[in-house]
């Protein structure tokens, strides 16, 4: 279970996933319940603690 501990989050972020958008060349965070885009990462590194969707170029 994810929780804020003052020094940072412990565990994964719930109800979120991320995928690599080749169009923007950035990681995009998505709400898993609605499917809506939540945020686009400013740099090219993936979000920490957010699971990756399968099928993408950089998916694990």
* Helix coverage percent: under 10%
- The secondary-structure element order is EEEEEE
Mean pLDDT: 86
Q: Spans of 5+ residues with little confidence (pLDDT < 50)?
A: none
- The figure for the number of domains is 1
Distance between the termini: 21 Å
Number of strands: 6
Classify the beta-strand content into a percent band.
35-45%
Give the helix tally: 0
Rg, alpha carbons: 12 Å
- The side-by-side strand order for the widest beta sheet comes to 5-4-3-6
**Form type:** globular
Q: What is the makeup of the main sheet?
A: 4 strands, mixed
Q: What structural class is derived from the secondary structure elements?
A: mainly beta
Task: Give the quaternary arrangement of the chains.
Answer: single chain
Explain this structure to me?
The strands form two sheets. This protein has a four-stranded mixed beta sheet with strand order 5-4-3-6, with no helix packed on it. It has a two-stranded antiparallel sheet with strand order 1-2. It has one domain (9-52). The protein has 60 residues and is mostly beta strands. The chain is globular. It starts with a strand and ends in an 8-residue tail after the last strand. It has no helices and six strands.
């Amino acid at each position: 279970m994810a929780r804020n501990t003052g020094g940072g989050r412990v565990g994964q972020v719930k109800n979120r996933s991320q995928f690599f958008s080749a169009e923007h060349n950035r990681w995009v965070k998505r709400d898993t319940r609605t499917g809506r885009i939540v945020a686009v990462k400013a740099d090219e590194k993936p979000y920490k603690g957010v699971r990756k969707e399968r099928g993408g170029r950089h998916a694990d």
